[in-house]
Structure formats: C-alpha cells, structure tokens
Amino acid sequence: MRFVTYSTAQQAQARLGIIVAGDTVVDLQKALAGKIEIPDTLLEYIQAGKELHARVLAEVNTTTEYPAEVSESFATVNVHMPFRPGKVIGVGLNYIEHVEESSRTLDTDKDRPTRPVLFSKPGTAVVGPNQPIRHNAKLTEQLDWECELAVVMGTSALDVKEGQALDYVFGYSILTTSVLVTSVDQGSGSSPRAKTVTHRSGQSLSPQTKSLIHRLCSCLSPLMVTSARTATASTCSSKLRPSLKTSPPV
C-alpha cells in the first residue's frame, strides 16, 4: 500500500488517502466508512498499530474499484507532508561516492567510516511539497540538495537485533533534503550543523521531473509515499536531478 496525505481544491482540510491503479487517490476514511474506523492522520494510523493496518490491507486487497465520490486523480490533488515527525535520524557517508565527494568539498576523512555516521533533524525542519523554503544568508552562502530514502518507524525500538529490525518498520518514503554547502562560519563541517537548518530556499520541479519521480515511487513499492511531486529516490543520478530554484538571500 502507498499512503498519501492530501487535500483538494474543494476541501482544503488535509486527509489520509491511498494511491491505487498508479494515479488514483482514494479517501481512505470515506472508502472504508461503515467497515473500518480510520484515523484522521497517517501518524495516528501508524500509532494505532499493526492490527488496524492488517484489516485495512485485507480490505484494500479485495477491492477492485472505488466510486468516484471517494477518489481523485493524483494530478489534481495537493500533496502534503505525510505527517510531522517527532525527530529524524539520518545516516551520513553511507556509500563510497559520497565519502569521496565529501572528502573533496568538506573537511571529512577520505577513508570509509568504521561505524555509522549519524545526524539528526528536528521535526520543524520538515515542510510539505512546493512550500517556500528560506535561504538564510547568515548561515550559508550556498545550498545544495540530496536524494534520500526514509525509513518510517512503526513503533519505538531499543537494542533491536538485526534480524528483528524490520519488525519495527512501518514503511518507506522518498524525499529530498536541502543542506548547507558553504557555511558563513565554516566551522568543523559536521553533519548536525549542515543538516538541521529549518529554513531553506524555495524549490520547483518541472512536469517531466514530477512524472519521473512518480514512476520512481511506483518502483519502490513502499507502504508510504511522502510526495511524488517533490521527492526523488536515493539512487537518482545527477542526470535526473531537477533544478533547485533559490530565493534571494535574506
């Protein structure tokens, strides 16, 4: 299943939906009304636990068609952030090309890390698709962006064995992050300084890029989709990168 938080021109209130048949968005609450009580938000849905998801999954898997009153074309809806997370934990320098690039442009070691390089982002740093992001010239002279794969946790985890790790995962999402490239106070170049900035520059994607991203989302077959309008897969190459339009520094 692929989830999406969205609104329409007729109803501005964000709601929880699923994407079916490639490009149709179904209002989950309306579609399952009278059968299963669906929470208002994706976060509440995740917190409700695996039993609810199993019931919804069984119902969706046996439904071949949805009436027009509960469905919309994906191209016509406004996609929101899935939910505001409490925290985001990132893993840096986790593939060879990134290690090499960082050693050339930042003050990181050219050797591969011997242990995970972790950094955090506050939930307030997350914005929805096509929302404006400010470029704060007091913090950075230049911005860049990166493609990321997000693992959405379904429950709290502590000291989990490797073989049980996926039992704690609700699903996956694809997203982009904006990072500082050249800091006004360059400092140590550490990840927390570079990746926890709340305000970023505005970005815009072409229709061709949106279509490409939507296909990438379909290929991943995740349980959750953040936004096919502004997200890209972590495996995208420089040839697939959309332009990042920045607003004037403030």
Task: Name some characteristics of this structure.
SH3 type barrels, 250 residues, 6 helices, five-stranded antiparallel beta sheet
3D architecture notes:
- The protein is of the alpha+beta class and 250 residues long.
- It has two domains: 3-79, Fumarylacetoacetase, N-terminal domain (SH3 type barrels, Roll); 87-240, no CATH class.
- The protein is 20% helix and 24% strand.
- The chain contains six helices and nine strands; from the N terminus they run E-E-E-H-H-H-E-E-E-H-E-E-E-H-H.
- It has helices at residues 28-31, 42-47, 50-61, 96-105, 191-195, 207-220, and strands at 3-7, 15-20, 24-27, 71-73, 78-79, 87-92, 117-122, 140-153, 169-183.
- The chain has a five-stranded antiparallel sheet with strand order 4-3-2-1-5. A two-stranded antiparallel ribbon has the order 6-7. Strands 8-9 form a two-stranded antiparallel ribbon.
- The longest helix is centred in the C-terminal third of the chain and has 14 residues, at 207-220.
- The model is unreliable at 185-194, 196-206 and 209-250 (pLDDT under 50).
